[in-house]
Amino acid sequence: MRRISLDDPSWVEEALLHLKSGRVLALPTETVYGLAGALDTPAAVSRIVALKGRPEDKALPLQMASAEAARGFGFEFSPPARKLADRFWPGPLTLVLPRPVGLPEWYAPGVPTAALRVPGHGAARTLLEKWGFPLAVTSANRSGCREAVSAREVEEIFAGTPDLLVVDGGDAPGGSASTVVDATGPSPVVLRTGPVSRQRIEEVWHGRG
Fold first, then answer.
1. What pLDDT sits at residue 111?
2. For residue 148, what are the contacts with CB-CB under 8 A and spacing of at least 6?
3. Which of 173, 34, 25 is nearest to 117 (CA)?
């Protein structure tokens, strides 16, 4: 395991090389630290699942640098879903959308949807912009345990993991993980409550806010 600071001018280059090699990195978001791996590398996704102790049939959420990048990849937004994206991205909102055609067949086979977020943390978005492809990203913790909010906590949780690169962005604010909304139907379905309230979701979806 190795740690690199955002103050190091080479952190983006090193993080990209780490991802290209099929390994996993930990990075800060606007809520907690996350574990990230290249979506086009099955071994990286499997490694995240193993590190967390997450059920293998539970697909990891994806992150991209912007809604425009997501549409370029093949994600489709209904008009109300686009309202949510326009209002709350970048930020702590995850949208469950129809599965894009660009998603690899091995990734959650048979699942007709995919969860997507555009993070609000500058470092995460910088990395995503440079990467140009979705990353599989989930909170840095063991399943069922508290999420890491600092590089030190990531190192403590995943001690003895030699292939993990920890991008140190200082302390994350912590608090609730992102709000998750199923945006595939005629009405929004809040699957997980978080920083964006159910009331605000309903208001924006129906054009009242």
1. 93
2. 26, 32, 33, 139, 140, 141, 154, 156, 157
3. 34
pLDDT below 50 — which residues of the chain? none
Q: What angle is formed at CA 153 by the lines to CA 12 and CA 61, rounded to 5 degrees?
A: 60
The single residue listed with the structure tokens 């993991």 is 161
Q: In 74-120, where does DSSP find H-type helix? A: 79-88
Instruction: Check if the beta carbon of residue 120 is closer than 8 Å to that of residue 90.
Output: yes
Q: What are the structural domains of the chain?
A: 2-205 (3.90.870.10)
pLDDT score at 176: 81
Give the angle subtended at the CA of 19 by the CAs of 64 and 160, to the nearest 5°. Answer: 120
Residue 52 has a pLDDT of: 95
Residue carrying structure tokens 């574990």: 35
Q: Tokens representing 90? A: 């970048």
pLDDT at residue 58, as a whole number: 86
Kindly give the interhelix angle for 198-205 and 79-88, rounded to the nearest 10 degrees. Answer: 130
Residue type, 116: L
Helices assigned H by DSSP within the chain: 11-20, 42-52, 67-73, 79-88, 122-131, 151-157, 198-205
Cβ–Cβ under 8 Å, residues 64 and 116:
yes
For position 81, what pLDDT does the model report?
98
Cis, peptide link before residue 90, omega less than 30° from 0: yes
* Bridge partners, residue 62, by sequence: 116, 136
pLDDT digits (tens, 9 = 90+) for 187-197: 999 999 999 99
